[in-house]
């Protein structure tokens, strides 16, 4: 393809897709479109195996992302004077800093409390009179219970008005629970590291889909099996092309997220297309408390530990928060090998970035269906 080959919007469909493995195969920075000295910062997200994928930003990219995040906050009604408690993780994950930049862009006050430490989180929420909560929806659902358990009455002790929740799928039931508990208005935010981070799309007050910032992202839906472009309104995999990114201007990036695109003007008056809330994925990626996990990453770790059998099972459950357990077969003599267990646990933590409960089980005990292993058991309640 040459730039001259693209004359109309329809020509975009001729551009080959970019996929996550393109980023992984070019780890860490083989996919840069600018010389490395122009990079302003780097972030990373889970790849499909042991290595993460690295995403890069020039100064202009960072300014653009900040502006998009600012608009995202603005659409949700966040203003100067608001106090934003940012409970997304700060660090390589784009959530923490992305929401931080957004709060700064609208002139609100940001409290970078990051993830975890729930008691302190609730204390700050009350004492600093936070008006905006930004975190994963699963953490906010957890705070519903945790705040009562800590003796707070959420509607009177806290003054939250707005919630910015994303990074993982969540149900309308979860939304209702959060809103009823805290008396706030919850907005769904969508994004991904490869596309700057959060701030790709946000629900306006109509909450009939998430507006995609069309001046930066060209959005298409495709049939995930054939790659064929679908008409607006049909369900398919979202594909994004970035229009002004300098460091990593991804073309037709396949997200694996399933949704629909609506192009009609919204009742809020905005013309930015809307995507339906994400329905699921067309690959096997799991999102556990906002963290992306591929079963292949777990396999990669297990294959590299000596002394294990080769069958394993990943069990995802929900007890207050999402939990990840890995059962792996081991020979008789090693079932009580604490050192081995510890090693698996440490290596999984190093790769996945979240804690797992590891169990060594007898060889032959994990189910095999017609010879095929059932690798993932997801026990989380469906809506
Ligand atoms: P990350 O790159 O770690 O930010 O993860 C991006 C992925 O998180 C997306 O491809 C989606 O699968 C998921 N995700 C992000 N925001 C949402 C959301 N609002 N609803 C559902 N899934 C989401
Ligand atoms: Zn709207």
Separate helix tally: 9
Question: Which ligands occur here?
Answer: adenosine monophosphate, zinc ion
- Main sheet attributes: strand count, strand direction, barrel closure: 9 strands, mixed
Low-confidence stretches: none
Q: What portion of residues is helical?
A: 25-40%
Task: Return the average pLDDT rounded to an integer.
Answer: 94
Oligomeric state of shown chains? single chain
Strand order of the largest sheet: 4-3-5-6-7-8-9-14-13
Estimate the global geometry from the Cα principal axes: globular
Radius of gyration, in Å, reads 22 Å
Counting DSSP E segments of at least 2 residues, the number of strands comes to 23
Terminal CA distance: 45 Å
What class would the helix/strand composition place it in?
alpha/beta
- β content, as a range? 25-35%
Describe the protein's architecture and organization.
It is a single chain. This protein is α/β, with parallel strands linked by helices and 383 residues long. The chain has 9 helices and 23 strands. The strands form 6 sheets. It has a 9-stranded mixed beta sheet with strand order 4-3-5-6-7-8-9-14-13. The radius of gyration is 22 Å and the shape is globular. It starts with 19 loop residues before the first helix and ends in a 5-residue tail after the last strand. 41% of the residues are buried. The chain binds adenosine monophosphate and zinc ion. Zinc ion is lined by residues 204, 206, 211, 266, 268, 270. The site of zinc ion (ZN) has 6 residues, from loops.
């Amino acid at each position: 393809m040459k730039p001259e080959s693209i004359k109309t919007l329809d020509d975009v469909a001729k551009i080959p897709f970019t996929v996550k493995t393109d980023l992984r195969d070019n780890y860490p920075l083989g996919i840069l479109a600018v010389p490395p000295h122009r990079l302003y910062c780097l972030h990373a997200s889970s790849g499909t195996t042991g290595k993460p994928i690295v995403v890069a930003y020039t100064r202009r990219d960072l300014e653009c992302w900040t502006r998009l995040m600012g608009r995202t906050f603005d659409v949700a009604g966040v203003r100067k004077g608001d106090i934003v408690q940012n409970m997304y993780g700060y660090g390589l994950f784009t959530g923490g800093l992305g929401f931080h930049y957004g709060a700064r862009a609208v002139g609100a006050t940001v409290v970078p409390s990051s993830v975890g430490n729930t008691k302190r989180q609730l204390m700050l929420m009350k004492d600093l009179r936070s008006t905006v909560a930004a975190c994963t929806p699963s953490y906010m659902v957890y705070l519903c219970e945790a705040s009562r358990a800590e003796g707070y009455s959420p509607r009177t002790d806290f003054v939250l008005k707005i919630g910015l929740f994303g990074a993982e799928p969540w149900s309308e039931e979860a939304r209702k629970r959060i809103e009823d508990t805290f008396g706030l208005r919850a907005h769904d935010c969508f994004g991904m590291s490869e596309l700057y981070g959060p701030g790709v799309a946000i629900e306006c007050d109509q909450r009939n889909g998430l507006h995609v910032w069309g001046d930066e992202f060209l959005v298409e839906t495709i049939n995930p099996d054939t790659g064929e472009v679908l008409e607006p309104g049909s369900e398919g995999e979202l594909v994004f092309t970035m229009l002004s990114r300098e460091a990593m201007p991804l073309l037709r990036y396949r997200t694996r997220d399933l949704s629909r695109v609506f192009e009609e003007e919204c009742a809020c008056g905005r013309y930015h297309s809307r995507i339906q809330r994400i329905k699921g994925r067309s690959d096997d990626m799991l999102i556990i408390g906002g963290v992306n996990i591929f079963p292949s990453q777990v396999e990669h770790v297990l294959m590299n530990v000596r002394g294990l059998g080769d069958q394993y099972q990943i069990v995802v459950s929900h007890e207050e928060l999402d939990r990840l357990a890995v059962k792996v077969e081991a020979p008789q003599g090693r079932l009580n090998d604490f050192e081995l267990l510890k090693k698996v646990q440490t290596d999984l933590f190093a790769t996945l970035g979240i804690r797992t409960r590891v169990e060594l089980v007898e060889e032959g005990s994990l189910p095999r269906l017609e010879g095929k292993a059932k690798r993932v058991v997801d026990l989380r309640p469906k809506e």
